[in-house]
Amino acid sequence: MPEKRKASSQKKSVPRKKVKQDGNAATAPSHIETTQQQSAQDAANAAPAAMGTPTTVPEGEGATIPTSVTKQATQDTNTAALTVAESASTVQQESEDTAQVANSSEIVILDTSGALEKKTCFIANLDTDTLIQIFYEAILRVPPNSTPGQFGTPWHFNGFKHPVIYCATRATLRSVCRQWADLISDAINLWRDIHIDGQRIPSPAKWWRKGWRPDPQNYSDLDPNEAQFLLPVVDIVGEMPRASLSVKRSQESTINLVLVDPTYDPMPRLTDFGRPFLPRPGILEFLHGAMDQPMIGSLSISTEDIHFVKDLFDPGVYLDGRCVVERKMETWTVAELISLACDGEEADHFDLSTLPPSTGDTFNGIRTRTQRRTEETKEIEHARLRKKFKVWPKLHTLRIRTRDPGWMLDQQRCALPAERAPALRHLELELFHEHPLWLWTFPYPQLTHLTLATEESSDFLLGIIAHCTSLESLIITLRTWTRDDTESTLTLDFGHVILSLLRSLSIQIDAPRTSDHKFGRRFLDSITTPRLQSLEVISSNVNRAYPILHLLKRSQCQLRDLRLDFSSSVLDARRSRVPKEERFNLQELLYFVSPTVENFAIQSGLMNCSWFEGFSAPNLQNITMLCFGIEEDFLGYKYIDDNAQKVALHVLRWAEKWMKGASEEEKRKRRIEFVACPALVRGTDGTDVFYGNAMSGKCDQVPCPDTINVLVSRIRAMGGKIELLWVTARELTEEELKAYYEQKKEEPRSTRRDTMRW
């Protein structure tokens, strides 16, 4: 084998076709999202059709995923490529171009017995375009199988848990032959997405000198004899080298960077309040190198250490001048907090053009001692200002997600105004109540996409939204932590917030500490969205969705997509104790949106099917319904009363009429999806069991009732597209329980109920 590789390396390699990145260069998928909102915001650009003559597509995060390869290409090489990937799935890092590669006409694969053997694959017959598309199919991570209505998919960015690139597959395919290595190395879009997991970076334990101020410099090297404080050993050493290689291969194009746990606690067994974390080895050097290019276009950070993020954008987080005294915080009004978050302070803004350049090499004469001291002082101050007010000219997407509060108070401000982030358009902030939103200053007026999952009051959130004059998409969580959110405390008199450009709104109303059905109503009653086309409402309390009808009537918008996620809550007014005039009325809502709605999806418990009577929507194309209404025995998982069957019969009888009066063209566009699920499994919400988020049971598909099958057959005979799924619950096996616990180990740690639906 060594002689074979050596002979192969002496052959003339295939000429490498460079694909340079410029304003018209082709770009491939960056962050692949699993929700409807983020598929439009963060879906990457399509793969180039050819390496020599790339297809020109817009740069950014708004293009589509590459299409599948042809059957012929799949028959020729797809099996071989995937077999090679499986044979070296343990590859965890990628080397430089000096890696040895095999002959381009021979591939080492596994036979049925597990032994290695060489087989000939006629890859020489495949053109470059087909090869590169196969590489995109194998290396880029496709979205997971979506559940009906996409209700089970993560509500926010999923890239923290699922990297976009299969690095091991990329490394394996590059080791097959010189031609494949060259093609993959030159494909910029296979390197632009970089995922760094801090848990995979070996980080040394340190000793904390007690009694000092909270500064990272107070850590010292640990005595080797202090073995009891050593951190778990990490054998993987390729995380940072692989990231550096990706930056090199991206050929100075903008990169999409994801950081998970970029800092660590060097003494996790020591309880010392205020003690800071330390950056992982190599993280800061890598970030400063990528910032100096400048190269970072999208930056996503998931961390327990909020100070690291603030010091990255606004250096000096540990200085006394950055801390906001708690007594002062309590005296500020809501209007003052809004002004601080949107406008910042005078010291946050600085015109970099007023800074003179470095004078170290501009004067060749003899300076006096006083002149030298003055110049040195100015140079130090100017260097500090240049570092503090560093500009991120290519940053268009920023995501910040915090988890456990750790040992640190969050009382430091961080400002990233427009002059330092001129291209920022997409902002996602997911913060616990320990991290106040008003401690951050962002250029809200220039944002087009905003996600706020915080625990601020509706008054404060309305003040933030009022400054977002360019907003097109909004995902927001109403989840106050400290006080009742139904009363107004806002001193600003701005009336209704008119979001004149907003087209997509997703709102989650989640207040586990209160059962008040009016929670969230103030926010919904204070906004107007005249151009809204897509609306999603998430709430386990059905009646909290009551104000959305008034929002739509007030806005007079042309709604096309409507998604209602009520978990497994019962959607039946007869079972509600809320006054009739304040109950959510699904029939009235659907009647109002029926002239324009095209897609409707709902997830809930038992439903009152009266809204089907006389319901007509001329433009309706897709209906997705998940009914968690199968009531089962607590111990034996046997059917007692199948209420979901009654709902299904109402839906299918209406669907039969809907299809019967449609033309052939309309039938081709119309689709129905119905899922019947358990309501409760051993006291656990049926949605948690259905989506695999509970250990109390697991859902399996079972045959549909005969009466349901008869109606389905009649609808399909008319040309209707209908999918029906009937599921029931069972106990988890030992293997499934083990897999469940392993999955929980990989999920972010949290000290409280995770309400952001990761």
UniProtKB/TrEMBL annotation:
Annotated region (Disordered), positions in chain: 1-74
Source organism, top-level taxon: Eukaryota
Biased composition (Low complexity): 36-50
The protein's name in its UniProt record: F-box domain-containing protein
Compositionally biased tracts (Basic residues): 7-19
Organism, as annotated: Ephemerocybe angulata
Biased composition (Polar residues): 65-74
